[in-house]
């Protein structure tokens, strides 16, 4: 059977023909675009013409538009505006608004209004008792590593922080290290309320929550590996980006070292200063210090998995006491967080995962 493939000349001819078709199509599109632009201009010019109607016309009617629709504007319609119509506004008409006329969205807040603590779209509450959650934020940290050289690899399989229904946070960090070095991951979420003190005095802020969390790491043999894994909840009161009071509750904390306790301490510092402090906002440094100060249970034969669980019938609570000034706006923030650091001293595979689900049952303030 003869070869049916086109020759080089035939291929070139087809290519040129296609180029011609494309060029023709481009020209047609250009013409169509110009035509549409002209139609748009006609519509724009006639939008204020009272002689026109808003009735949709068929294509045939459009093609046979009447002379009235294409008439030349009369002298009255095209006249030059008079001097009175084009005059420059007087000083009184262009004056700068007075202080009382300045829009709320652009005014400068006083210290008591705490400009930096209150987004302008949110109206602070002054409730004693249960308070609402005004906003939430997802705070996954960028995975961090050190000592990774040559063919060593890190794999951040999952780094997720999601918030739903203004009351639930699902936090997951899952990563692996192939070779020697250190890998750290962290994910947090923030629940915020803006509260204006009704009067000066001492108050107590309480957050109640429930949920569950778990960790696991592999392989079981840890002679050349070190791990630290954490899941915690922070409650803070802030104003003008300044911390007034705070408390961090550990929900799950574990360390496993094949070397010595100092190795776990160093990994906690890595987690705190490389991940938590830079990525969790104002309260990041507070959580970081708490993480470093924990006396983490360190065992050479610690199980490779662990968990915590609490229910709505028996929720955890964390509370702080603070002194407030009447009229000042305070930011209440609940920040659940999970993280881990893993370090390998041998050219082997190392993996770790921490996952927690937090339900914020309620946030309340009371006067002491």
TrEMBL record:
Residues 48-57 have a biased composition (Polar residues). Residues 95-119 have a biased composition (Low complexity). Residues 32-120 are annotated as: Disordered. It comes from the Archaea. Residues 68-94 have a biased composition (Basic and acidic residues). This is Uncharacterized protein.
């Amino acid at each position: 059977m003869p070869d049916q493939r086109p020759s080089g000349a035939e291929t070139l001819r087809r290519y040129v023909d296609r180029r011609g078709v494309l060029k023709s199509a481009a020209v047609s599109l250009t013409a169509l675009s110009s035509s549409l632009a002209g139609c748009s201009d006609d519509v724009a010019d006639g939008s204020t013409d009272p002689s026109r109607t808003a009735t949709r016309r068929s294509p045939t009617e459009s093609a046979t538009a009447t002379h009235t629709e294409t008439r030349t504007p009369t002298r009255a319609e095209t006249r030059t505006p008079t001097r009175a119509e084009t005059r420059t506004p007087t000083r009184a008409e262009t004056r700068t608004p007075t202080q009382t006329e300045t829009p709320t969205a652009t005014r400068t807040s006083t210290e008591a209004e705490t400009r930096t603590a209150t987004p302008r779209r949110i109206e602070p509450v002054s409730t004693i008792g249960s308070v609402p959650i005004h906003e939430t934020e997802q705070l996954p940290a960028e995975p961090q590593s050190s000592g990774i050289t040559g063919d060593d690899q890190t794999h951040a399989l999952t780094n997720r922080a999601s918030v739903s229904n203004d009351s639930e946070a699902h936090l997951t960090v899952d990563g692996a290290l192939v070779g020697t070095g250190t890998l750290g991951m962290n994910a947090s979420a923030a629940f915020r309320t803006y509260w204006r003190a009704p009067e000066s005095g001492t108050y107590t802020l309480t957050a109640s929550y429930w949920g569950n969390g778990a960790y696991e790491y592999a392989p079981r043999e840890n002679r050349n590996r070190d791990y630290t894994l954490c899941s915690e909840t922070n409650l803070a009161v802030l104003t003008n980006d300044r911390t007034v009071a705070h408390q961090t509750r550990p929900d799950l904390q574990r360390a496993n070292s094949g070397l010595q306790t100092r190795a776990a301490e160093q990994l906690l510092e890595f987690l705190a200063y490389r991940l938590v402090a830079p990525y969790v906002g104002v309260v990041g440094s507070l959580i970081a210090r708490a993480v470093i100060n924990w006396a983490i249970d360190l065992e050479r034969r610690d199980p490779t998995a662990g968990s915590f669980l609490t229910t709505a019938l028996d929720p955890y609570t964390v509370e702080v006491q603070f002194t407030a000034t009447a009229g000042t706006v305070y930011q209440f923030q609940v920040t659940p967080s999970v993280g881990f650091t893993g370090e390998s001293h041998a050219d082997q595979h190392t993996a770790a995962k921490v996952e927690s689900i937090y339900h914020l049952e309620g946030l309340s303030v009371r006067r002491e």
